[in-house]
């Protein structure tokens, strides 16, 4: 009877998740704790695996799967707390197959009546957890990086569109390229990955693309720490700029550029955008999981259209907020020079003045 009741228990995973997320959002919005939602998520996301393991135990499901989930979550969390030489993300990119192993061991346990067989499978689960701990203590090797020099002439283009996709790493984008150059700098990509560059001019407009080769995959050997990609854009001609970063940190400074249309996306990581002051600009800045920081020059006429899900919001005290529309004091009349859509699913959005 007691066993049947335990099997009928409902999952406590999502209730605990909602309570935890709601508590953090409330405390950060009230300035009761330092940091923001993204800061806590970056460090404590492995707790999701721990909660999942505890939920399996509570529902009376697989002890094997629960032990592996608890072990995996603990190792990843230890990495994020700097107790191990690997980060939690580096460890996850290498240890995720243990989830498949856990599912297999769980299937072996179902319907098993042999005490010896059950004990042996549980022993394998514990050994797997011990192996994860040992792996986490091993000092990681650095992932090789290959530099790619970028030096694209304008070729008489009077306007341009630039589209760049980077898989992983740190990226810095500013203006300041030579007048006869569209874009210049150095891209650092994993040594096992090739980048494809293309450029064509038609009707006075140059179209530039820089993307990973077709079928490229994120390497899973070594860490992602290395030299940052640095790119300089032409400051003279009007430009559409489209940049996508899968994982990492990107900083785009638009003050010394002539970008009129902007599309910046980060799947996982941190994005810092510095806006110009006396320039017309429209665009979208989005992040699936991460932190968005928008740096605004004082006196700039700016309007932000917010679309967030589980995100904290911070802005200067003199900005005006009307539902999901946020404007600087200079755009109070509804005629902003810069109109940006900010999209963030999980993380935080911070609007701040430049020093």
Detailed description of the structure:
With 355 residues, the chain is α/β, with parallel strands linked by helices. It folds into 2 domains: 2-137, no CATH class; 145-353. The chain has 8 helices and 13 strands. Strands 1, 2, 3, 4, 5, 6, 7, 8, 9, 10, 11, 12 and 13 form a 13-stranded mixed beta sheet that branches. A hairpin with a 2-residue loop joins strand 11 and strand 12 (325-327). The longest helix is centred in the middle third of the chain and has 23 residues, at 115-137. 33% of the residues are buried. Residues 219-224 have low confidence and may be disordered.
Radius of gyration, in Å, reads: 24 Å
Low-confidence stretches: 219-224
Measured by DSSP, the beta-strand proportion falls in 35-45%
User: Helix content range of the residues, please?
Assistant: 25-40%
Mean pLDDT: 83
Judged by helices, strands and strand pairing, the structural class is alpha/beta
- Domain module tally: 2
How many β-strand runs? 13
Shape: globular
The main pleated sheet reads as: 13 strands, mixed
What's the total helix number?
8
How widely separated are the two ends?
A: 67 Å
**Series of secondary-structure elements, N-terminal to C-terminal:** HHHHHHHHEEEEEEEEEEEEE
């Amino acid at each position: 009877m007691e066993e049947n009741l335990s099997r009928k228990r409902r999952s406590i995973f999502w209730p605990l998740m909602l309570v935890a997320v709601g508590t953090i959002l409330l405390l950060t919005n009230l300035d009761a704790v330092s940091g923001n939602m993204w800061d806590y998520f970056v460090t404590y996301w492995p707790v999701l695996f721990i909660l999942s393991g505890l939920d399996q135990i509570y529902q009376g499901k697989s002890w094997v799967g629960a032990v592996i989930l608890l072990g995996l979550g603990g190792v990843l969390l230890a990495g994020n707390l700097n107790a191990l030489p690997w980060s939690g993300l580096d460890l996850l990119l290498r240890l995720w197959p243990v989830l498949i192993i856990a599912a297999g061991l769980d299937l072996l346990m179902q319907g098993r009546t042999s005490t010896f067989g059950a004990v042996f499978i549980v022993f394998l689960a514990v050994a797997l957890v011990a192996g994860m701990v040992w792996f986490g203590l091993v000092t990681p090797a650095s992932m090789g990086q290959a530099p790619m020099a970028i030096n694209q002439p304008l070729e008489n283009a009077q306007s341009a569109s630039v589209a760049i996709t980077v898989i992983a790493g740190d990226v810095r984008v500013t203006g300041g390229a030579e007048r006869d150059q569209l874009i210049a700098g150095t891209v650092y990509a994993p040594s096992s990955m090739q980048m494809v560059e293309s450029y064509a001019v038609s009707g006075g407009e140059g179209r530039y693309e820089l993307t990973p080769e077709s079928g490229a995959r994120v390497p899973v050997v070594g860490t992602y720490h290395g030299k940052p990609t640095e790119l300089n854009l032409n400051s003279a001609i009007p430009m559409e700029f489209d940049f996508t970063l899968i994982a990492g940190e990107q900083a785009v400074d638009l003050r010394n550029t002539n970008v009129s249309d902007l599309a910046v996306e980060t799947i996982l990581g941190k994005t810092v955008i510095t806006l110009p002051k006396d320039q017309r600009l429209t665009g979208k800045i989005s992040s699936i999981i991460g932190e968005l920081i928008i740096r605004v020059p004082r006196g700039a006429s700016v309007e932000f259209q917010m679309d967030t899900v589980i995100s904290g919001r911070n802005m200067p005290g003199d900005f005006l907020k009307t539902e999901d529309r946020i404007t600087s004091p200079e755009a109070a009349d509804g005629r902003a020079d810069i109109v940006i859509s900010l999209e963030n699913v999980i993380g935080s959005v911070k609007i701040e003045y430049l020093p």
